[in-house]
Amino acid sequence: MINNKRAIVVGIPGVGKTTVITRAVEMLNAQGLNARLVVFGTVMFEEAMKMGVKHRDEMRRLSVEDQRRLQENAAVKISNMKDDVIIIDTHLFISTKEGYYPGLPFHLLNLLKPTNLILVAAEPREILSRRINDKTRQRDLVDEAEIAHELEIAKIMLASCSILTGAPFAIVMNREGKVDEASNELANLLADRRVR
Q1: Looking at residue 165, which CATH number applies to its domain?
Q2: Rounded distance, CA 195 to CA 191, Å?
Q3: What is the pLDDT of residue 94?
Q4: Looking only at Cα atoms, what is the longest distance across the chain?
Q5: For the segment 81-128, what is each residue's pLDDT rounded down to a tens digit?
Q6: Is residue 195 part of a domain?
Q7: Residue 196 pLDDT level (bands cut at 50, 70, 90)
């Protein structure tokens, strides 16, 4: 039995992170493990509703102090979950006009106490193609070089998180048409036995 793994899984827009995570959770549950996908922003919104926030977009208008409190409350709530495997879907960074804003500052890592840190990645040309073809999202379109730069920033930031927490980090490649392979790799990183 897995001893309560808490994996933070991140990826830049267009890598297919949510699809990979969702299928990995299904695979883990099919093997008899109690696995759960937790979207950090959703838990934050649940905490914000306790403060009277009615819509998710309102969270951005809260003071920095209130946003930090929401982040901390969400992290504590997640760290207290008892499932065998908890996969935390969140943003590693947010690109702002002032630079890259960390989605996992030290105080959150300290509260979440992750056992694993995983980056879902893909080739820059595949990410660009996915971003262009995804009509359901409004994403800033950039070129392959900028996407490659974002992937490098993500690797550096995740390695830094690993140093701060002592949790191992891994990179799962989600190649075009190979989502099941990527999901299987993610599931195997978090299971104490091979998942098929």
Answers
A1: 3.40.50.300
A2: 7
A3: 82
A4: 46
A5: 999 999 999 999 887 778 888 899 999 999 999 999 999 999 999 999
A6: no
A7: low
Tell the burial category of 60 from Cβ atoms under 10 Å away from its Cβ (0-12, 13-18, 19+): exposed
Judge whether 15 lies within some domain. Answer: yes
61-70 pLDDT, tens digit each: 888 888 889 9
pTM of the model: 0.89
**For residue 140, how many other CB atoms are within 10 A of its CB?**
8
Taking residue 71's Cβ as centre, other Cβ atoms within 10 Å add up to 21
Structural domain for 43, as ranges: 5-190
Mean pLDDT value across residues 1-6: 69
SS3 of the chain: the string is CCCCEEEEEECCCCCCHHHHHHHHHHHHHHCCCCEEEEEHHHHHHHHHHCCCCCCHHHHHHCCHHHHHHHHHHHHHHHHCCCCCEEEEECCCEEEECCEEEECCCHHHHHHHCCCEEEEEECCHHHHHHHHHHCCCCCCCCCCHHHHHHHHHHHHHHHHHHHHHHCCCEEEEECCCCCHHHHHHHHHHHHCCCCCC
